[in-house]
Amino acid sequence: MTTKHLKHLKHFQWFLPLVVILTFVQCDRIGQDAPQVLMPQVGGQTNLEIPPAAKTHTFSFYSSEDWTAEISDTPAVRGGEGGPSIHPSSGKGSRIKQTIHITVPENHTSELRTYILSLFAGEKTLTLPIEQRPDLGDLQISTEEVELPSLGGSKVVEILTNKPWTATVEDDWITISQTEGIGNEEVDLIIEAAHNKTGHQTGTILIKSSDFEYTVAVSQHALDCTLDKSYNLSYNETHTIDFTVLSTLPWTMAVASNAGWISVEKDAHDASATPIANKITVEENTGNIRTAQLLLTNGNNEKLTYTVTQQADLSRFIPSDWEANVSIRYLTYEIIGPADFAIVATDESEHSQYKAKVTAFGHYAKILELTHDSIKFQIAGKDFTYNHVTLKNAITTFQGTFSKDLNTMEGTHSISGSIEGVPITARGNWDATRK
Question: What is the mean pLDDT of the segment spanning 120-127?
């Protein structure tokens, strides 16, 4: 070893102890600054619920310090059954999860048992109540009678037992959520049925556990009506609609919104096993479009709703002639020219909703919508010439609105077809004045 190396070694001899001292000081400071941890693995866990059976359960936690644990019992447990136990009852601080195994005796009583698990680490304490459910007994159910909704739905029967159990049903209109269970549990048995449109029906569910059994009586009333869910009626005549109501409970039928233009022949009736004939009458409409709701309600406050819409009085439009200006825009081109429209009466079945149709460009157009303030009509699959331009296989849809005095209308239109074999799609505006 050279003189130069010896000189460096002398410097290292006094530097090494300083490094060691600084290391210990720093480690001690880290130990003082690091927060102490004692917490459940599952954040926010405040208790542990366990079944009545004798069993070993686990509780996982984190502790940064050495720890000890103890579990309390009750005088009732110490009276001969043997108390709870834990393993291990102590451990070293660690960053990893730690687990305590908790063994409890069976709870034969009808009372809830509570044990207290306490962990101690440094200056921290973690307390966990452990609640053991009472003995559920051989078999208990919450009710022996269930009435299901007429319109379909479900009810719940709670089953409590410490033995395996089964549930059977022979009536095909009843369904249940499960047919067996393992015991030592509380189960919500869901009983369901579809909408009953035929008549009052009854059935049973047999629930058995060991040598005990219960029969749950299930019933369901009927509620049905032969009305369609909605009607769209013309304005220009009085309508009568015959229908029947089947309800094995008393029922009422009311017209909502005080719509005096619609009436019900029978607005109430007693329970019946057979359908009851009924009728609604809708008066002729001399005004705007109108809508009413019919509400059928049985004695259990179950409801069926029906909607009747009557179109506006369109006699002011039929017949009517209009002078129109129509613009067609295609790419950078725009064609503007006159056209004649007419709204005429018809008895054709395809126009029966409005008993009217439009003539435009020498063709009949089907009315798709006609109200007191708007119109929509379509010409489909026709050839027509407009301002010296012939459009082949045209499909043109016009829609617009009427002015308040009903003397003018305006709107937009879309058009597709071909000109000299070239497909086109165009749009435009239109307006019309009543002649």
Answer: 93
